[in-house]
Amino acid sequence: xxxxxxxxxxxxxxxxxxxxxxxxxxxxxxxxxxxxxxxxxxxxxxxxxxxxxxxxxxxxxxxxxxxxxxxxxxxxxxxxxxxxxxxxxxxxxxxxxxxxxxxxxxxxxxxxxxxxxxxxxxxxxxxxxxxxxxx
Length: 135
Description:
Number of helices: 8
Helix content: 55-70%
Low-confidence stretches: none
Shape: globular
Largest sheet: 2 strands, antiparallel
CATH class: Mainly Alpha
Mean pLDDT: 92
Structural class: mainly alpha
Radius of gyration: 15 Å
Order of helices and strands: HHHHEEHHHH
CATH topology: Arc Repressor Mutant, subunit A
């Protein structure tokens, strides 16, 4: 992936800096989605061409990987990589921020309270679960 600059913010944005990429990461991290059709079913209604492009981009950037589904061999299963799992603190911070400023946020209040009161414990717990499920 050719970078526009060596700025750390730019590096992050080139890997996950669009709405759809972050929503795919969200679905993998928090919603247990692993297949193309599951991503299409998200409330945000991504188009098939955008979804295909973002999945390829996330894979090229090393944030996710695709592989054969263990149950249905003809289906592709997406997983987070260690680099993708490392985005967990950023995602938790975004959820906290949204929970504070979005009156219509659907974030579970118990999750938000735990994220605020025991952020590091919550992140360690989710990270452990993600590693078991994805690596």
